[in-house]
């Protein structure tokens, strides 16, 4: 997914285009670029986020500009592959959202005709194709060029000495905004909202020529009228698409994330290499650290490999003895501490593997190989779907180490995740509203799940929540239990079921209200806890995910009831790129 | 000209469609692999209506999540409690700025019918229905509606309201304390605003779960030929058949269209899929099984040597091998009404049935567990264990 923005009018174009691209960052943010026309085509492109780049725009003069923000799905996001792309002479610049399916064929033909390609992208083909047809009229050239394109596209084209932007779309979104002596265009309406409320949606197959004062739309070479729509949404609604918060939107994306990640792993032919090392060290921070702990429990139980998990921030100064393989886990791929850890591991001749969500991120460039979770851009600061994505990656790895014993279990896991999403939580939430402290307890693989549940609660509801291995509660924290400290206890069937039940009874005896999570129809747990939350019966691995989702929902609904700023909790940032 | 708005009411559960509305509202029930709501949104989009407002309520997250994936900008309004259709429209009222179309989110309507009514102000799309008593029957004189009689026991005519109206903002004043739209329509007519009756081109309703089979058959007529996935050797495919990405059709299978098969399915080898069948994403159909005139929802699994006809199989349900559904005519009591129906089986979500079960014209609730060799008929409540 990518985003494109264009501006033509009477203001300096570059700052406005950059502003618009920031609004589209949710569509991807691994590289970006802007081109303006001022008797010449000026281009700046960079890998990295727009909002953090502080790019110097002074070279970009002109009142006509186009820009692009990229979420690379294939092809590395480097400066060269970033849009805009130009033709051989640098007189035509193109930004593109979509996929040109027949680009290889077109590229070969164009190279035969003597065109020189600079990047590996499909988009550059469009620039050269337009050049091929260009004989003074940009509109005619684009109209002729798009006839050859198969696949999906929304493109904006500018050319030297042409006071127009030419736009075309097919199966990718493109909206025009009509302002006062200015025209904007973008992948969706959000970048337009600050400038105008009058929008024109292009139809599939439309080609439009935009000047500062008019829009001419052509379909199959015939000039057509497209009606003007009045927009009155707020900027946030447009992106969240009806969900109250990004966090809830992302929670609901988890069944798909898990399924897609597991499916992508099946195609990864390098995974069997994981059977080789006898010892694996995992380095991570925050939520990723908890995912890694889940991996430790699962890998040790099902493959008898020795797995140790380290905080990346500690690892740097107190590096443990390393052998065999080091795995670095980071959603953004930019977490500073984790990056340093990878370098340390490489210096000690360990093989390195990165687990990340962002293609072409720093970590994927420095590790020996990278496994991606297919979570898509995560906007809420509190990680939800990236945690599930990491669990999917780790469980896929465990499956490989256990010779495919869990293929069936993992292939159906998304069903169980789907089933817990609508879980009613009102009673549990009302129990937590007045609490200032609370505990999460679990055993085995549910211990890191409890840690993650507590972290979510701390992050967004600001209730001081602590996760413990259930057996450790007695070694100190028990002193804190009172009727004012609710406890969330994970009591799923298995080896630890009986001892968990007696732990719950002990906590009840100290007067602490207990929220119990168990499998559907487990009347024994239901009878001893204050509030019972059921999860579907499934394999322990899947239950680790469904319980995490339940705990995310619990934190979300509690924070919502307390009217916290859920998507942007105080003092926190999405990825920590400083030490 | 100012463009028209459209308000789609998708907040209701559709209780009579249970058990299928356990996890989603009626508007989201997939027919020919797409929720009914999506057909409506697409028909509106094709008519150039850009401002679409969807009122959601029951299981709203499911609706919002799906709408987000459509790339058609849709505004969502939440009706916190389902207090009737008029109340739902009132929730959307602050966003209505001019003439608007009002549509129920759970009935299929085609693009041409919307075009017919768009130009009119104060009009209703009508449909001649053989069983009018389930609907709002329209008393029409000289092309104008005189009165809507909601679900009469003795219907005075066969022309019914599709629930699709083209209205002006003035209509909102008639909502008052009414709970249902037809009452407000009657109030408007009584106040002297005429309501034009416009016959619809194609309209399909599903009231009871078995109606979905008819709706499915009707919508499958519009299936486009598509062949993604891997198709094994000696597979026979005839008629309009759409096969999604990542799906495997095992050798020696036969598929007779119209049939739509979703993504990442595994079918066969040696399976037969007869016409008017929709198979959702990630469904597995084991070897030597026959399926026809059925709706198999996502993530379901049908064992080998089964014969599934005239059936709806819910999401994530696993039907054991050698299962048979046998279509018979019986009388059902649904929401207090006695209905005669003929179908094979309606099986809810996440049902597990062991081998050699016979589903004899039955409605099986969600999360039911059936042991081997059972014959099921009538209604089985949610969560039951048949031993």
Automatic annotation (TrEMBL), chain B:
Catalytic activity: N-acetyl-alpha-D-glucosamine 1-phosphate + UTP + H(+) = UDP-N-acetyl-alpha-D-glucosamine + diphosphate; alpha-D-glucosamine 1-phosphate + acetyl-CoA = N-acetyl-alpha-D-glucosamine 1-phosphate + CoA + H(+)
GO biological process, one term: UDP-N-acetylglucosamine biosynthetic process
Keywords: Acyltransferase, Multifunctional enzyme, Nucleotidyltransferase, Transferase
Pathway: Nucleotide-sugar biosynthesis; UDP-N-acetyl-alpha-D-glucosamine biosynthesis; UDP-N-acetyl-alpha-D-glucosamine from N-acetyl-alpha-D-glucosamine 1-phosphate: step 1/1; Nucleotide-sugar biosynthesis; UDP-N-acetyl-alpha-D-glucosamine biosynthesis; N-acetyl-alpha-D-glucosamine 1-phosphate from alpha-D-glucosamine 6-phosphate (route II): step 2/2
Residue ranges annotated for the Nucleotidyl transferase domain, each copy included: 6-217
Cross-referenced InterPro entries: Bifunctiontional_GlmU_arc-type (IPR023915), GlmU-like (IPR050065), GMPPB_C (IPR056729), Hexapep_transf_CS (IPR018357), NTP_transferase_dom (IPR005835), Nucleotide-diphossugar_trans (IPR029044), Trimer_LpxA-like_sf (IPR011004)
Sequence intervals crossing the membrane: none
Known EC number: 2.3.1.157, 2.7.7.23
Keyword Glycosyltransferase: no
Domain Mannose-1-phosphate guanyltransferase C-terminal span(s) in chain numbering: 255-367
Listed GO MF terms: glucosamine-1-phosphate N-acetyltransferase activity; UDP-N-acetylglucosamine diphosphorylase activity
Keyword 4Fe-4S appears in the UniProt entry: no
Domain of life: Archaea
NCBIfam families: Arch_glmU
Family per similarity comment: In the N-terminal section; belongs to the N-acetylglucosamine-1-phosphate uridyltransferase family.
Name the record gives this protein: Bifunctional protein GlmU
Lineage: Archaea, Methanobacteriati, Methanobacteriota, Stenosarchaea group, Methanomicrobia
